[in-house]
Design a protein that fits this description.
By secondary structure, the chain is an alpha/beta fold. The chain has one domain (4-484): TIM Barrel, CATH 3.20.20. The protein contains 16 helices and 15 strands. It has helices at residues 25-28, 41-46, 64-77, 89-92, 104-119, 135-141, 147-165, 178-187, 210-237, 258-281, 287-293, 302-308, 366-380, 401-404, 407-426, 472-484, and strands at residues 18-22, 82-86, 123-129, 171-176, 240-246, 249-252, 315-318, 322-327, 341-344, 355-356, 363-364, 384-389, 432-437, 457-460, 467-470. The protein has an eight-stranded parallel barrel, surrounded by six helices. Strands 6-8-9 form a three-stranded mixed sheet. The chain is globular and about 55 Å long. It binds 4-nitrophenyl beta-D-glucopyranoside. 4-nitrophenyl beta-D-glucopyranoside (PNW) is lined by residues 24, 176-177, 180, 246, 248, 318, 320, 361, 388, 438, 445, 454. 4-nitrophenyl beta-D-glucopyranoside binds next to loops. GO terms for molecular function: cellobiose glucosidase activity. This is beta-glucosidase. One of its GO terms (biological process) is cellulose catabolic process.
Amino acid sequence: MDLQSVQDLKGVLRSDFYHGYATAAAQIEGAWNKDGKGISIWDTFGHTPGKVSDGSTADDAVRSYEFYREDVALMKTYGVNAYRFSIAWSRIIPLGGCDDPVNEQGIQYYSSLIDELIRNGITPFATLFHWDIPQALEDRYGGMLNQNAYTPDFVRYARVCFERFGDRVKHWITYNEPGVYTLAGYAAGVHAPARSSFRERNAEGDSSTEPFIVAHTELVSHGYVSRMYREEFQPHQKGSIGITLHGNWSEPWDEEDPLDQAAAERAREFEISWFADPVYKTGDYPASMRAQLGDRLPRFTAEESKLVLGSSEFYGMNSYTTFFVKHKTTPPDINDHKGNVEIHDENRHGIPRGEESDTPWLRAAPEGFRKLLNWIYKRYQMPIYVTENGTTAKGEVAPTPDVLDDQFRIKFFEGYVGSALARAVKEDGVDIRSYFAWTFTDNWEWAAGYSDRFGCTFIDFESEEKKRYPKQSAYYLDKLFTHLIREA
Ligand code: PNW
């Protein structure tokens, strides 16, 4: 666990750099129906047989709802100065809607968590939406498929959060990964609300249209919330507001083939610029998407476009891996969302995209992360807040000494933070202001259940109290950031 490879990087990160862990309410809190909480679509999903690979639910998850004080104390021993968590909409407004009652017990929980963080010198970053829309809104009008009905409900929920927590929370994120929410939930149908064109998997849905409609709703409702915050709250609360987008690096399969270079750029646009161009660059979707999707891609009204462009005060970035991308010679499938490309694990020289983790899509590819930081910074010219990055590791099944000495994860962080992020700052001039590791403890990894362990803390899910065991990677990150961050 030495810092050999980063010796030359001492003090390269800003003295006010934020580092800590990111989590999501539905993955950690448990207490799914306690103290007045309403049901979210992920509660429904978990309780539907056949949806989650290990058959588990998030009813208890890691019980952070009860153990948040102990968790903040443990986090403090990990040396963090910030924590990114999400607020469960259905804890705040159990039925979700703009005329539905507020649940004071839910407010109380987040209020106490925020106070506990601040008391421990940890800056809270709050995400309003990390995929857990109240089930009642899905039932009432189809959730985000209905932009007109949905938007006032999201705006009112956000207003309650700003009113009740905005005196203490100065970093707001409206949506976590609007792209993964819509692609997994409405294109593949493997996440809640489980809709797609594939009838062997989902009873309803249309993968060729719904993902784009839902994305549009996310962008526009984000725009309304951002405007409201900036007009009504920011002048006295003095915080900032933005959105977090996911994105992987797309590397050409044959780096010398112009068709593969174009395919890789198109893949980046379909994955990232779909959201980032409207918000940071043009107020509209990329031309490559319009060319392939035509009228299946919604159009921004002039008012929406104005609202969305410039609506995020920073670039919230979640990134995990790299894929090789090869052009196709056949026309795009109606259900394609990637820009009509082939995705490969090896390039034309047979070089793999990275070392395997315990999660099939995720391989360790730090060079791709550095390229992506540069690509985003160049295209969008915004300060970047890395709001998630991390990995699973093979063989983490019990809290034995070898498992807790998680060398694979340590090496992952060494590559992604030590060489990629810190060198992007020092050598490439990219403006990066935070790094949140995904994630604090092992948790409920959505449709993968409890088997994919992303935590820097091992959880014994069999034990009543979900016993926590620190992994060495947590201490490594502490040492690494102490070295990289400039002393004030
Ligand atoms: C993120 N991909 O999801 C989410 O924000 C977390 O809630 C989740 O637990 C974490 O990453 C790990 O999966 C992603 O395929 C899911 O590129 C899939 C991808 C990226 C992010």
